[in-house]
């Protein structure tokens, strides 16, 4: 009987110590992020979901314009649409010149300009959208699933609120004010990233992950402090235009990270109305990423104690 009581006491102590050990870095991270953001000449929102359990946020429920970050939820929504409709991802898609709108950022249009029709694999179009932020490619992905309304229905089916896909890139080009309507809260985006990273393992999802994890754009943002650490980083950036008063509309980066020590987290950083230049604003994103990495890389993922 005494042995049994002793075992229970030891287990209780170990679990209590582990709980304290886990809570401390989370509270420390919350404090450090809050202090870093305070007083900066920009609206900054951060959300981090750690090991699918703990959430740390600063202005996490504030609504921010996504800009090209919204190409990530479009990709997630398309995956849900294809799974629900039991449709096979088309091997190739036929693209016409009417799909390649002029006067918008589109490496795909620049490559195929002058060709009447183009046959491209879906994967290549995804690569243009996610790795090069091609605006025409993004609108083609929306077209596959029938537009923004179906994209929103897909996100609702996944249980994601407060990520709004309201307008196409073509519509935003015609009226820049619509950029603010394609919006998200940091917490909603972190939840979407967390679900995408852990809840699906089909070929479509693996392809999207491969594209996000080999993305060469935005290297001065979330990925910068993780270079050379053996961490796996998948991310998508968003960049706004310069406002009439010289401020930057938005500089964003969102992603998921798997650390060598077994820990993982999703992270969303939105910076709106920045009073700093591009380099300085990107450095704020990188510093936030560094703070999170430094806090979470110090401890291995702990398992529950069982007797």
SS element count, helices: 10
What is the N-to-C succession of helices and strands?
HEEEHEHEHHHHEHHEEEH
Q: How far apart lie the N and C ends?
A: 16 Å
Average pLDDT score:
89
**Order of neighbouring strands in the sheet with most strands:** 2-1-9-8-7
Structural class: alpha+beta
Largest sheet: 5 strands, antiparallel
Number of strands: 9
Helix content: 40-55%
User: In angstroms, what is the radius of gyration?
Assistant: 21 Å
Strand content: 15-25%
Q: What's the overall geometry?
A: globular
Low-confidence stretches: 13-23, 303-307
Can you put this structure into words, describing what you see?
The chain is α+β, with helices and mostly antiparallel strands and 307 residues long. The protein is 44% helix and 18% strand. The chain is built from ten helices and nine strands. It has helices at residues 2-37, 71-84, 107-112, 122-131, 135-144, 148-157, 169-174, 186-199, 203-213, 278-296; strands spanning 43-50, 54-58, 64-65, 93-96, 117-120, 183-184, 232-239, 248-258, 264-274. It has a five-stranded antiparallel sheet, sandwiched between helices. The protein has a two-stranded antiparallel ribbon with strand order 3-6. The longest helix is centred in the N-terminal third of the chain and has 36 residues, at 2-37. Mean pLDDT is 89; it is low at 13-23 and 303-307.
Keywords, please?
10 helices; two-stranded antiparallel sheet; alpha+beta; single chain; 5-stranded antiparallel β-sheet; 307 residues; 9 strands
What's the short story on this structure?
This protein has helices at 2-37, 71-84, 107-112, 122-131, 135-144, 148-157, 169-174, 186-199, 203-213, 278-296, and strands at 43-50, 54-58, 64-65, 93-96, 117-120, 183-184, 232-239, 248-258, 264-274. It has 307 residues and is an alpha+beta fold. Helix 2 (71-84) packs parallel to helix 5 (135-144) and helix 4 packs parallel to helix 9 (203-213).
């Amino acid at each position: 009987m005494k042995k049994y009581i002793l075992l229970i006491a030891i287990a209780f102590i170990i679990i209590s110590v582990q709980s304290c050990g886990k809570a401390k870095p989370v509270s420390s991270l919350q404090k450090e992020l809050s202090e870093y953001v305070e007083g900066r000449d920009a609206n900054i929102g951060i959300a981090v979901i750690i090991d699918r359990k703990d959430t740390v946020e600063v202005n996490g429920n504030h609504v921010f314009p996504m800009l090209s970050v919204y190409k990530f939820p479009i990709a997630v929504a398309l995956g849900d649409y294809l799974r629900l409709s039991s449709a096979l991802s088309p091997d190739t898609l036929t693209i016409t010149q009417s799909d390649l709108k002029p006067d918008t950022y589109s490496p795909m249009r620049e490559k195929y300009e002058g060709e009447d029709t183009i046959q491209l694999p879906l994967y290549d179009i995804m690569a243009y959208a996610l790795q090069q932020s091609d605006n025409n490619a993004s609108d083609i992905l929306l077209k596959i699933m029938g537009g923004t309304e179906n994209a929103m229905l897909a996100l609702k089916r996944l249980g994601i609120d407060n990520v709004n896909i309201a307008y196409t890139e073509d519509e935003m080009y015609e009226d820049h004010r619509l950029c603010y309507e394609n919006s998200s809260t940091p917490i909603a985006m972190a939840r979407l990233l967390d679900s995408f990273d852990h809840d699906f393992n089909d070929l479509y999802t693996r392809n999207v992950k491969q594209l996000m994890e080999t993305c060469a754009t935005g290297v001065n943002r979330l990925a910068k402090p993780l270079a050379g650490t053996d961490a796996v980083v998948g991310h998508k950036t968003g960049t706004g235009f310069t406002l009439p008063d010289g401020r930057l509309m938005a500089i964003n980066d969102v992603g998921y990270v798997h650390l060598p020590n077994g820990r993982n987290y999703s992270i969303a950083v939105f910076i709106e109305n920045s009073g700093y230049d591009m380099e300085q604003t990107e450095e704020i994103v990188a510093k936030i990423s560094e703070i999170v990495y430094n806090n979470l890389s110090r401890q291995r993922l702990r398992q529950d104690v069982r007797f």
